[in-house]
Amino acid sequence: MDKFKFVNKEFERLGGSRKYKEFSFERIDTRQTVFLGKKQLVLIAAIIIFGLGMYFSKGLIVQLMKGDSADVAVKTDGVQSSHGKRPVKVNKAGLSPDFKPEVLKTGSKAVYNFDIQMPKENVFNVKAKIGLTNTSSLNWNEILLYFYLNRMGTNARLKCYSKGGLAFEACLKKVGGGEVKVESVQYNGEPVKYFLEEDRLRLYPSSTLNKGKTGNIEIKYTFSLPGMYQENGSYNLPQWYPLVPDFDGSWNLLPYFEQKDTYTSAEAEYTIHYQLFKDFNIVSSGSDPATKAAAGTIKANALNEWYLMLLDGFVQEEAKVNDMTIRVHFEQGKQSDGEHALKAAAEAVSFFEEKLGPYPYKQLDIVLTKANRGSYPGLILVPENRREGMSMFARIEETLEHAVVVQTAQQWFYGKVLFDRYRDLWLQYGLSELAASLYFLDGKQLTEEESFQYTLEYLNVLKGWESGKANLPPEQYYSTTSGLIVHTQLKPAYRLWELMKPHSQNDRWNFLSGYLKTYSGKKIATIEFIRFAKNYFKVNDESFDDWLNYNPYRDEFIEMKL
Q1: Helix, strand or coil for residue 140?
Q2: Under a CB-based contact definition with an 8 Å cutoff, are residues 258 and 155 in contact?
Q3: How many whole angstroms separate alpha carbon 463 and alpha carbon 469?
């Protein structure tokens, strides 16, 4: 038996106490027990075979002689595994009455007020006002903002460098735009020293922003979008404004990663005033106008980011689910895909509301795009090409229904429970993939193989997935064949399915809904999810230690005790 304890000193200062949190780990090594069991069983088997014939040799004893003592039936609340026939007791699922969440404190709070003007095609003028409150225990001498706009054009042009000759020139011409100009920055009504580099905007106020106090920032800037964010006169504006990151002892502004959104921000209030040179269908994270508009105001509370799209020439259809509206937007000629997506989303929302709780926002917009994919508060993008970024060896392509359902599930698992997406991205993608698979299993009444088809295909094709952890910084997946999607989305979903499979359908969904209810509006890390899951399913660390990194922040702080 191996025992050790570690203290996560760098990150897990839970509950705002700034005291180091000690976590225990215990693994029971059963190899010696199995070895001794084989010797005994071989002798017993020889006696039985000699004296009584083959009757018992075809039963359980053969399984045990093969060392398959784990491959026995698991039966709880009417659920039995396919491994064998002998039932094994599974602990009753549910949180202990004395369980209390241990959460991380967010250190910043923002109130946004934007005026965005579009005087002509692909020209945007913005005045951004940000009321920034320091909710941390430290005073701030500098303020960092996430400003992805400043990197958009560079990222688009970098994609051209892999092309040669005329293709390179054509690519650069197609990129176009992607220019940003900051005209002025003020802090509390006075000009402030600032520095813009890559996707970071640093402000150096003349006075310290003390804990508990609020400072007012005003930034005026203009920008244009590169070609990859334009489709037939429509505009896709991801991260078009300066975003306040979380503060947890330092500004939580980590390196940009293109394949997945890895920035982290706390919930905020938003007010958007827009003035456009012509009518567009406004699609955003707020409650949008029902028809095309050139001017207006949109407000929303408790959002951790605001996504905006201006659509022109798209067909719009909608459906009502309980008290919320689902709208789907698609290009002419894509009527079948639009109807399919709307039906899939409506059925998924209805089911998830029953199992997970009320839909978190007032509206859900689904935009069928050429290549852009993503899930943001109140809005999801579903690409026409769903193989991009996936393995060329996979025999199946992600279906439109699967893509819609997974990204619809992210409306519950991204935004309301806060976490560091740079390291804990799997809490968004893995839990959403699991919820989607359970939806197909329990809601659509498909078989287990059909429900987990997408996950199993990639886990079988991309060998070596077992060795990688699911909660590492994204750049550590660059060198792996399976990459980010398998590690942060598919593998966590299936490993959690293996954990909950012996339990009843109600227990599985109560686990997910209980997680959302327990941590809604709070910030956690992987280690707290493990503590929650261990308590709920009454399991030990061995269920997680081979696919989750318990201390991904500073390995040198691990303290071993054998």
Answers
A1: strand
A2: yes
A3: 14
**Tens of pLDDT along 200-251?**
999 999 999 999 999 999 999 999 998 888 888 899 998 899 999 999 889 9
pLDDT for the residue 56: 40
Q: By C-alpha distance, which of 494, 359, 492, 518 is closest to 428? A: 492
C-alpha R_g of the chain: 26
Q: State how far the Cα of 168 lies from the Cα of 160, in Å rounded to an integer.
A: 6
Number of domains in the chain: 3
Same domain, 255 and 180: yes
Mean pLDDT of 43-49: 45
The identity of residue 328, as a single letter, is V
As given in the structure block, the two tokens for residue 543 are 């269920």
Of 364, 398, 432, the one marking the end of a domain is 398
- Do 421 and 433 lie in one domain? The reply is yes
Q: Does one domain contain both 422 and 524?
A: yes
Query: 180: part of which helix (H) or strand (E)?
Result: strand 180-187
DSSP β-bridge partners for residue 247: 251
CA pair distance 465, 176, nearest whole angstrom: 39
CA distances to 346, 378, 562 from 325, rounded to whole Å, are: 9, 10, 57
Q: Which domain holds residue 157?
A: 105-310
In Å, what is the CA distance from 438 to each residue of 445, 452, 507? Answer: 9, 8, 12
Judge whether 117 lies within some domain: yes
**DSSP conformation letters of 15-46:** GG--PPEEEEEEE---HHHHHHHHHHHHHHHH
Per-residue exposure over 250-285, b if at least 16 CB sit within 10 Å of its own CB, e if not: ebbbbebbeebbbbbbbbbebbbebebeeebbbbbb
Q: Which of 366, 363, 368, 367 has the alpha carbon at shortest distance from 378?
A: 363
pTM: 0.82
Distances from the Cα of 455 to the Cα of 51, 350, 458, 512, angstroms: 49, 24, 6, 19
Nearest-angstrom CA–CA distance, 159 and 171? 8
Phi, psi (rounded to 5 degrees) for 278: -155, 175
Residue 466, pLDDT above cutoff 60? no
- In this structure, the answer to whether residues 454 and 394 fall within a common structural domain is no
Q: How far is CA 143 from CA 104, 194, 217, 247, in A?
A: 21, 9, 10, 10
Return the H-helix or E-strand segment holding 451.
helix 448-451
Answer yes or no: is 34 within a domain: no
Compute the mean pLDDT over every residue in the chain, rounded to the nearest whole number.
81
Q: Where are the beta strands (DSSP E) in 304-385?
A: 308-311, 314-321, 324-331, 363-369, 374-376, 379-383
